[in-house]
Fold each of these.
Amino acid sequence: MAKIDAIVFNSKAGHGKEYAQIMEKETGVKAYELDAAKTALNSSSKVLFIGWIMGSGIKGYKTAIKSFDVRGVCAVGMAPMGATDNDIKEHNKIPNNQQFFYLQGGFEWDKVSGADKTIMKVIKKKFNKDFGGKENISAGEQDMLDLVNKGGSRVSLENASKAIEWINS
């Protein structure tokens, strides 16, 4: 029996939603978009929350902890797996009794607009200046460079496996 009642997600570009769908399929635990979950579930529902990262903030996390009994958190971001776990946990004040997972999502230029697009153009310029054309950059740095230049998704069953194991344990 799963240790949670539901998977609740907040997704902008679709990577968090994809992870929620993978986890739902692999665990049998129903996944809900955050707004729908507020209607479908009650405040005592035990949930795994999946949210996308902007800066170091997990979008929707504050709403989720006010609305449900959050037992675990998945932060979906661009960086390679595990690269920024402690910073994200500290920034969002995730308590030790909440399981934490970082999941690499991806980046889609066509799904970014307004101020977010301006910010990402600055990040792209910085990454290309810092890493473009240099030898001996790490695989993670190369992956980030590829994402900001070409876009793409890193969502996979393999990346979700630890969260799935936790749900099923």
Amino acid sequence: MAQHTITLIPGDGIGPEISHAMQRVVDATGVSIEWEIAEAGAHLLESEGTPLPQSTIDSIKRNKVAIKGPVTTPVGTGFRSINVALRKELDLYTNLRPAFSLEGTGTLYKDIDLVVVRENTEDLYAGVEFEEGSEGAKGLIEYCAEQGAGVIRPDSGISIKPISITGSRRIVKWAFEYALANGRKSVCAVHKANIQKHSDGLFLKVAREVAEEYEGRIEFEDRIVDACCMGLVLNPQQFDVLVLPNLYGDIVSDLCAGMVGGLGIAPGANIGEDYAVFEPVHGSAPKHAGKGIANPTALLLTASLMLAHLGERDAADRLVNAIRAVLKKGTQVTYDIKRTNTGSTDGSVSTEEYADAVIAEL
């Protein structure tokens, strides 16, 4: 049996509690994992001077794979986001967000099974911005006027939207390869190329070129983002794999999570050529920290993605099926799931008791 060394970042808030539950469940699958604990979060700011120590980055680079609980980004420190910092440092250009229905989560939709693949490094999230009134903003406004590119009001803050051939090609190719590896039938590129002709237009052009390489193996279509959102709400079963630039991917992935029960049961991963960091996308919920009531489902489902990435497909499938069984029964679930299903938290169980129930189903 293969031995895997994984960097575990418990995070802060409810992070350590749900991370402990996740460890117990993953160990119970029988996969041999050595957990290397590393720290990140607002609680490190005073002792380390940063919420993301270099030792944590070094651990991920050494082990190639990490799983992390939620972390709090310190307010007013100039540190934008721990998650964004990791994505940039490790070039984690793919954000993988599956969305699938789980009976017992109280959602209106049934039989959803789709995957959102979001580009993680470019677009309006690249962080190329000019503050209102700055010399950079003034110069850019003047340059646009001189070039006849358009009139920008002088009191504007400006964000630049870079989309490259390189970034577009690798994310679309990743989506097609994921579709092939996971028995998916189609990939849909989502864009606003009718308006953003030189950025989204480039993304669409590259997507169509990549799609030609998979002709006859994976079906391809494209949708304008607003039409895609309407289509998701009306008939989500029509979609399989969606691939999107950064901003649209952020919005659409949360839309899809909402249709299957919310961020509390939404797995996620950030993957690059060399490294992969698996993380749920919900917050650290500091007001619930230490109470032992947090729902670890999102992190458990995220762990299933990690197991599949490690080649432990059987364990990944068994974990998802165990979670399905517990949620379907509805008797050993945390307060949020119980409240969604019954309107009351009576009879809900703790984080660790929920983990016990999942382990019993493995």
Amino acid sequence: MNIIVIGGGAAGLMAAGTAAEQGARVTLLETNEKVGRKLFITGKGRCNVCNNCDAQTVLQNVPVNPRFLYSALGCFSPADVMTFFEMHGVPLKTERGNRVFPVSDKSADIIDALFTWIKRLGVTIVQKSAASLEIADGRVIGVHAGGKLYAADRVIIATGGASYPQTGSTGDGYRFAKQAGHTVVPPNPSLVPLVEAGDICRELMGLSLRNVQVTVFENNKKIFSDFGEMLFTHFGLSGPLILSASAHMRHFGSKEYRVEIDLKPALDEKTLDKRLLSDFDKHKNSDFINALGDLLPRKIIPVVVQMSGIAPHEKVNSITKVQRASLLHTLKHFQVVVSGKRPIAEAIVTTGGVNVREVSPKTMESKKCAGLHFAGEVLDVDAYTGGFNLQIAWSTGRLAGLSAAQEEEN
């Protein structure tokens, strides 16, 4: 069995190695000089390998087409992923939110383990860009790359989505899928920074907040809430919390979104009010704008003062209970109206891709073109942060590799 895998990312490496383990002759076409370019930057260079949870929890973190992944997760679960990497010499650890990382905190260790594995199994790596598929009588029979036709019994497309094009994810997989008769759900950015409608964030550019709660409202309906870190930028909001939130915001243009930040989530309103009274007593003869230094980062104070509606130079001892309530509301519901997401090139993952109704969930094989399989982000499945997107890559890559190598010729 002669198999070509297009794309040397997480899904492609897993598919190539798995097929080779089954005895197939495997050629991996990868544009970049080194495999795993996108893996190298995941988890801030630490590589959030997967999530230490059961398959059902993975599915709960996949907002788009989760049912399609039942067989793939049954074939290669989070526990299987962890066992795989530990067996290939990468000790793992589980952190907050059940996120799994290499003990070394180096994504290079994950890439090296996969590279060593596929080389040991005899996978041939060809540093060329796939140009098109060769299809005859409804079956894929090869791939054109670098002016040459590489013949194949099976082809696995694992090209990624359209996010981070500098890593090689340029959307080529969508073009190949269309060539084979597939429909492609238009790709959109997910896990991406947000653009503010106003200019509050520009004033706060560079300010990072830790241990805050972010809540997202879609047309005044709460759709997401979580604790963690975030960052104000010149265009809007970023940071881990915001990237997670963005995956839930899918209807810009038809719906309105706002983000509310609880600057003091550890304190309920009653406790925070007591804290304000205490601080006000300490600074009773000061101007209001000079009385919040013990409570807030210096950079955000002028904006909070403005939002509260209290004059910055009003003496603290003259602030009324009603005014204090307004300040309290601002601290617990710091509001940023969001107009959209940053471009797809800045997204961690892409939502959209090859329509999964046209792909067999049991084999990852195309229903439109015999011998053609798909794996990873090129498919219209994506997940929230926490290692779930890489889990999709490992599971679909494993299943595609097994199926491609084992299936009999039609």
Amino acid sequence: MEFVDLLDENRLPLGRTAERLCPFVPGEYRTVVHVCVFNSAGELLIQKRKADKKLWPGRWDVAAAGGVSAGETSRMAAEREFEEEMGVSLDLTGIRPTVTVNFGRGFDDFFVVVRDVPLTDLHLQEEEVEDARWVTLAQAQDLVDRDEFVTYPKSFLQFLYDMRNQFGFTE
């Protein structure tokens, strides 16, 4: 059973935890993370979710994502999720989330970094990830148009691509 820390609307800890997938009550929030890895050519590493996943089955998404477990920081969760799903260690020391998107039940921290990770180095998590590849912005937006990508607005994907070379978001 996986637990998450509960937060208030200001991201302050409530001093309680809850089971990760249990229903939340009003005033309780949690944190999730997304890891957006770009290579030096400006391509985004994406993964195809397994067809039997509960959320967004069979769709493409950014390299890694998941919930922040109780006691973790979002950076720790981003590193853990990337290693679990992609099979490669990713050091985010000194990196803060590039952007946080609020959603109905919490906060979604997006980490945007530039790393040249060879696809041959990836060891995809068999239970969750079907495939991985590098894509240009046009290719990612085409996947959105074909309803094959998680439902990010195309303008949000553009924003992520734009943020990849901003001060503080690269090594």
